[in-house]
Amino acid sequence: MEMKLLYKQSATLVVLVLFTFFTSQAYSAGDYVLEAKFAEELPKAEKGDTKSQYAVAEMYEKGKGVVASEKEAFKWYVKAASKGDKKATYKVGLFYYSGIAVSKDYRKARDWFTKSANKKYARAEYFLGEIYENGHGVSQNNNTALKWYKRALAGGYNTAEDGIRRIGEATKSAPRKKRPKTTKSKASLKTIDTVLKGGWKKRKRPVEYLPSSVNTCNHTSNNMECESKLLKRNIGMADISYTTKAIVFGFKSDGKFKVSYRNNVKTIKITDEEFAESGGTVPVKLGWQDAEHKLTCKVEDSKTITCTKNKTRNFKLTR
């Protein structure tokens, strides 16, 4: 009886030893494959291969084949994003959005998500929807959120259905606002006429958002639309060419009015060699910029207008 018991115990021990050995060998083999993969991708990434840069970033993020490091992952995602990889661009935005490896920054997250979304990456489109739905670093806007959610859903990201549903419920429960009636007094017409005289300058340079030598403005009803010629500017590391489109509205009898304008970048030419070699990202993109500049202005006299930009900076325009 004792011999049978001893035999059973010995057999069980052998099975456990063999199981442990083969299991550890399988895990070791798996680790070896991943480590070999990382060793293969890293040199190519260091030479600037975009796909390898993304692969290295993902392996650092998930700890596959290398010790996990969110900071290293972020560094390599940025490198791949600077080459135009839409997935890497989305990942950089996600790191800023979630505060992974960097300080949480919704504005930077929005900028990176927008770059990726402009290449029709559905996940980036979804997170832009979240940003605008919740007002993270931007003015809360359900219409804009809905637009991005619909694009994400069309791109196959089904989670966007939840966002569309939330916007629909919020729209149903929101009270409707009555539009105030607008009337034009003789005094407000005087304000419009003064602005329309044109020739407005800031520090002796023509402004691109009010009637001046560099743009054309059309007056319709109580509003004015202005579009500039092709303009050029140096932004430190690059020369850019752009046009500006502005809407001038809200003319009051006391001389006050408002301006909203955006820039449309046509060309970007990097002029700083060190910046180009560093792989940095120019703080503007081709096409319409996301930033919408807002001015609150007042006609002081026939030759002077004072303005406040984005509620923070005051300046004077003359003609």
Gist of the model:
The protein contains ten helices and eleven strands. It has 319 residues and is of the alpha+beta class.
Q: In percent, how much strand structure appears in the residues?
A: 15-25%
- Report the total helices: 10
Find the structural class using helix and strand composition.
Answer: alpha+beta
Uncertain stretches of 5 or more adjacent residues: 2-8, 13-29
Distance between the termini: 113 Å
Nearest-angstrom radius of gyration? 29 Å
What is the helical fraction, as a range of percent?
Answer: 40-55%
Let me know the number of strands. Answer: 11
Task: Give the averaged pLDDT, no decimals.
Answer: 84
- SSE arrangement, N to C: HHHHHHHHHEEEEEEEHEEEE
Number of spatially distinct domains: 3
Structural notes for this entry:
The chain is of the alpha+beta class. The protein has three domains: 1-84; 85-173, Serine Threonine Protein Phosphatase 5, Tetratricopeptide repeat; 186-318, no CATH class. It has helices at 2-46, 50-62, 70-82, 86-98, 106-117, 122-134, 142-154, 160-173, 186-196, 273-278; strands at 201-202, 205-206, 215-220, 223-228, 231-234, 238-249, 256-270, 287-288, 293-301, 304-309, 313-318. Strand 5 and strand 6 (238-249) form a beta hairpin.
